[in-house]
Amino acid sequence: MLLQLAAWPEVEEYLKTSTAIIVPIGSTEQHGPNGLIGTDAICPTAIAQQLSKRMNVLIGPTLAIGMAQHHLGFPGSISFRPSTLLAVIRDVVESLRVHGFTHVYFLNGHGGNVATVTAAFSEIWAGASFAGGTDRAPRLRLRNWYLGPRVKALSDELYGHAEGSHATPSEVSLSWYAFPEAVKSVSLHPELAPSGPIRDAADYRRQFPDGRIGSNPGLSSIEHGKRILEAAVEDTVEDFNGFTADAA
User: Fold this and answer.
1) In a domain? residue 130
2) Does residue 183 form part of some domain?
3) Which pLDDT does position 125 carry in this prediction?
């Protein structure tokens, strides 16, 4: 069930059998010459929507803007400051706690979110600790869909070292499968992008002028995207079931 398509009595009924929710989270940032700017939000959203068809699980609205300041040298990228994203995560969790949700599973599509979301979890748990009492703190998990064992094995099989670290063929393929009408056909020069560290936005644009890091998304395909989605769903079902084993 998708939260944004439910009426409140349906959510109230859902909470009688489960107090867990999946919240997709990503980013709105450049993904090279042929990658969609919404890739990091599109991918976890597509996975979560498949989960809603297989499991009795509530899917929250996607948090589509993340911590992406280093991409601001490329038109179309939008970023929160770390402090803004931290506040967003806290407010989302606290809102859900008001209604009785105990387990919030953030399905993440953007590596740049990890440090800030993890810090937000620490702030939430610290608040519970300092408040004292015996109430259980919320159970929180950040899961990077692209690090699941099945996804990683498939990415290695399909792309090897050409997977790279940004604008990867696996994420581009999955986003294309979700939106085949938006597939981009471009020439990439060089085919395999260089690798290296990233810092501020201007430095990123100087070092990686087309936006890719270590990847060759020219290997992407819609058919690959279908396989990657299936692998990601299997990985997430397994991880989510373990996370919610003690949920109501």
Assistant:
1) yes
2) yes
3) 95
Range of the domain at 186: 3-243
CATH code: domain of residue 119:
3.40.50.10310
DSSP class of 142: E
Own/partner long-range contacts of 193-198 (Cβ < 8 Å, ≥24 apart): 193/32, 193/164, 193/167, 195/164, 195/165, 198/70
| Cα gap 187→105, rounded to integer Å | 38
Give the residue among 61, 79, 82, 59 at the shortest CA–CA distance from 70. 79
Query: Based on the structure, what is the number of domains in the chain?
Result: 1
- Proportion of the chain above pLDDT 70, given as a percent: 99
Q: What is the pTM (predicted TM-score) of this model?
A: 0.96
Tokens describing residue 98: 């008001």
Q: How confident is the model at residue 132 (pLDDT cuts 50, 70, 90)?
A: confident
The burial class, CB within 10 Å (0-12 / 13-18 / 19+), for 26 is: buried
Are the beta carbons of 221 and 176 closer than 8 angstroms? Answer: yes
Q: Which two tokens stand for residue 192?
A: 């395999």
- Residue 231 inside a domain? The answer is yes
pLDDT tens track for 84-106: 999 999 999 999 999 999 999 99
User: How far is it, in rounded angstroms, from Cα 2 to Cα 5?
Assistant: 5
Q: Which residues contact 144 (CB under 8 A, 6 or more apart)?
A: 108, 109, 111, 114
Phi and psi at residue 20, to the nearest 5°: -110, 150
Residue 248 in any domain: the answer is no
Q: Give which of 226, 167, 147 is closest to 35, Cα–Cα.
A: 167
